[in-house]
Amino acid sequence: SPAAPGTSLPRTLLGPNGTALPSPSKSLNDRVGLLRGDITTLAVDAIVNAANRSLLGGGGVDGAIHRIAGRRLYEECRTLGGCATGSAKMTDAYGLPCRKVIHAVGPVYDPLDHDGSERLLTGCYTRSLELAVAGADGGCRSVAFSALSTGIYGYPSREAAPAALSAIRAFLEGPDGVKIDMVVIVTYEKKDVDAYNEFVPLYFPPV
Ligand code: AR6
């Protein structure tokens, strides 16, 4: 039906790939936050680790998470049988202040296969949010993501940020989106801060 006289029609917003984004909404924007700092300190329901296929720990944020969570996290991870790239598995958080850890395995960035890398990276974000809402004890309503693949795995931050944001936004607008109260994107290095400052207003435009 046509808009009533005097009401403004929604603007059409274009994402970086030229596809139209739905009009902004305050209830959507209020559920996404950007934070620079150490993800291991956050008392959210779930933090998302940048893991590798073994799920047995490593460097970067994975090393920091395992160091603080302690030996019991390693022991639980050993029972999981690894994880495919582009997917994720959830564990308890042990010595960490959060309730759960979602271990996502991002791709090693392949400059010759941008689309394949992007599909795997967005898969991590989508699967992590699926695990969060399906999690025990009523699900994880607050989820903090580290900037998957942008460290040791070499994914350029300005390409990773829009992929992450489009996956997060699609999930929040999907059928299970209402089961998430808050997504916090945790940046650590300046290049990721800059990338998210650039792209958050595109994917979650001010209303
Ligand atoms: N809190 C938040 N973010 C952090 C922290 C922290 N404490 N420490 C680093 N980052 P990376 P990847 C950021 O390298 O690229 C491991 O060895 C960092 O600045 O941790 O997915 C795994 O076992 C970057 O933006 O993960 C895998 O083998 C982001 O976390 C491999 O590295 C991810 O960087 C995974 O590589």
UniProtKB/TrEMBL annotation:
Signal peptide residues on this chain, from the entry's feature table: none
Domain Macro stretches: 19-204
- Official protein name in the record: A1pp-domain-containing protein
- Give the classification, highest ranks: Eukaryota, Fungi, Dikarya, Ascomycota, Pezizomycotina
